Amino acid sequence: MNHAPSHWNRLSPLALAALTLAAAAGCTPSEAATPPAAEAESAAAPAKGPKVDTETYVMEMKPTKKYKAGQEDTVEVTLIPKAPYHINDKYPIKFKPTDPAPDGIKYTKAVLKKEDGAVDDKKAVFKVPFVAAKAGQAKVSGVLYMSVCSDANCIMDKQELEANVDVE
């Protein structure tokens, strides 16, 4: 007769309870161990583009005119919170142009901080300076780091934005 304990007898009561719950829920142990937050984050990440519209804010990067090759100019990045949210005045809001810059674009400022823009509780606007090397379509891009708050909570976020500009 073998007196060695089976592998089931060596499991802690907590591990046994977790396996029982996973089996009852129809999950395999590996599926039960997958953190749902990771799945939600990857599914919720919006594709980068000129505009991000969430339940709490809208941010946008947009060209403001036609641009000339070799001349410094700007695109506009805006953040507008949706009620009941407002821009968190304690958060160091900033915009960082993509590094390295997209082909044919040179950014003249590595980071735009709160003091480089026009920021109040209802709107933030940054003028992102750049120089396009040649005529045609060019892509300007970067990441806006921000926070919006309501009376109940604050949300810190960063979003990648990009916009196409026409260069003459």
Describe the model:
With 168 residues, this protein is α+β, with helices and mostly antiparallel strands. It has two domains: 1-45, no CATH class; 48-167, Immunoglobulins (Immunoglobulin-like). Helix content is 15%, strand content 42%. The protein has three helices and eleven strands, in the order H-H-H-E-E-E-E-E-E-E-E-E-E-E. It has helices at residues 13-24, 29-33, 36-44; strands at 51-53, 57-63, 72-81, 86-87, 94-97, 105-107, 112-113, 118-119, 124-132, 136-149, 154-167. Strands 1, 2, 3, 6, 8 and 9 form a six-stranded antiparallel beta sheet that branches. Strands 4, 5, 7, 10 and 11 form a five-stranded antiparallel beta sheet that branches. Strand 2 (57-63) and strand 3 (72-81) form a beta hairpin. The protein starts with 12 loop residues before the first helix and ends with a strand.
The main pleated sheet reads as: 6 strands, antiparallel
Question: What is the second-level CATH architecture of the largest domain?
Answer: Sandwich
* Structural class computed from helices and strand pairing: alpha+beta
CATH topology of the largest domain: Immunoglobulin-like
Average pLDDT: 80
| Strand proportion | 35-45%
Overall form = elongated
* Overall tally of structural domains: 2
What's the level 1 CATH class of the largest domain?
Answer: Mainly Beta
Low-confidence stretches: 4-46
H/E element string?
A: HHHEEEEEEEEEEE
Q: Write down the Rg.
A: 24 Å
- Helices, by number, come to 3
Span between termini? 89 Å
CATH superfamily of the largest domain: Immunoglobulins
Biased composition (Low complexity): 29-47
Keywords: Signal
Protein name: Thiol:disulfide interchange protein DsbD N-terminal domain-containing protein
Region (Disordered): 29-51
